[in-house]
Amino acid sequence: MKKTKTSSLSILVLLITGTVFIVLTIVRNQDPYRSLDESCSRSIYDSKFFSNPFMLFFTRLGSGFFTIPLGIILFLSYNNTGDRDKRNIMIFNIIGIRLLTTLFKQLFKRTPPEWERRVKASPYGYPSAHAMNAAAFYSLLLSFSGLYKNTKIIAGYIVFLFLIGVSRVKLGVHYVLDVIAGIAGGVFYNSAVIKTYQLFVRR
Q: Which of 82, 98, 124, 185 is the most buried (most CB within 10 A)?
């Protein structure tokens, strides 16, 4: 029964996040969505609610400078303990999501906001690779730990990803739709990798 419920949940997550990503990809350059996106993004950028140092902290937590070393440490740990499944999925997550975001950047080539950037970033904006990489990585940690069953942890996880996404807008490198699509794409990728691995690879 528990396995059926978990499987149903993963399928639901795939459907929701996949749909969100596809819809945003279609409407991102269409008015009124584009104008609304630019207006909301500018409001966040100009807002005094979040300080730049606070946003830099969260953007660092979502960066490869933090997630890649942590991922490698976990990969080596799983390798040492003989947990081949977690080891393999971790490496698929770290490498695969970055290849996918690079492909999407080159495919969509959306120009980022024109206002001053407060950090260095890719010349293309859609989707936010930062948000997508972070969502995929932290979703995987949530899956491996089993904490996705705890509603308080899930709430904290959502707030955490929200802050990483907001940091990218506040620092002037992305529009709101870029980060929403990135988060949806990252969660979708993680769920798809785990589901595919369970069906076709794991023995």
A: 185
Burial class (CB in 10 A: 0-12, 13-18, 19+), 17: buried
pLDDT tens track for 49-107: 877 888 899 999 988 889 999 999 999 999 999 899 999 999 999 999 999 999 999 99
Contacts of 125 (CB under 8 A, 6+ apart): 110, 111, 112, 113, 173, 174, 175, 178
Taking the C-alpha atoms of residue 199 and residue 26, their distance in angstroms, rounded to an integer, is 30
Tell me the two tokens of residue 165.
Answer: 């996404």
**Cβ atoms of 117 and 179 closer than 8 Å:** no
Distance CA 118, CA 124 (A): 16
DSSP 8-state class, residue 147:
G
Please state, in angstroms and as integers, the Cα–Cα distance from residue 6 to each residue in 2, 31, 169, 175, 195, following that order.
6, 39, 34, 33, 11
Look at the block and give the residue holding tokens 């949530």. 142
Six token digits for residue 178: 């870029």
Q: Which residue has the tokens 């390798």?
A: 79
In contact, 169 and 180? CB cutoff 8 Å = no
* Max Cα-Cα span within the chain: 53
Amino acid found at 68: I
Buried b (16+ CB within 10 A) or exposed e, 64-87: eeebeeebeebbeebeeeeeeebb
